[in-house]
Amino acid sequence: MGIGVGIFLIAVGAIIVFALDVNIPGVDNFSLGWILIALGALAVVLALVMNQQRAHTSHTSRVEERRIEDR
Predict the structure, then answer these.
(1) Domain map (residue ranges) of the chain
(2) Are 56 and 8 in contact (CB under 8 A)?
(3) CB under 8 Å, gap of 24 or more: what pairs does 28-35 form?
C-alpha cells in the first residue's frame, strides 16, 4: 500500500508541476507539486525499506504435546 500511495503522490505532484497552469491564491503550484513529488519518493523508499526488513524476519513455532495417562 505504501508504494502505491508514493506513486500516486509522485503522479499528482508531476501533474501539478508540469501540466496545470492554475493560479490558486496563497498557494504556489510549483512548490506544492515538488513537495508532493518529494513526499511520494520518500513514501516509496520507506515502503521498500519496511518490506526489506519484513523479508528478513524468521518465525518459529512451538508445538506442545501433552499426554494423558490412564490409571
Answers:
(1) 2-55
(2) no
(3) none
- Euclidean distance between CA atoms 2 and 40, whole angstroms: 9
Phi, psi of 27 (to 5 degrees): -130, 130
Distance from C-alpha of 13 to C-alpha of 19, rounded to nearest angstrom: 10
pLDDT in tens, the chain (71 residues): 678 999 999 999 999 888 887 777 888 888 889 999 999 999 999 999 988 877 677 777 888 888 887 76
CA distance 24 to 22: 6
**Contact status, residue 11 vs residue 39, Cβ threshold 8 Å:** no
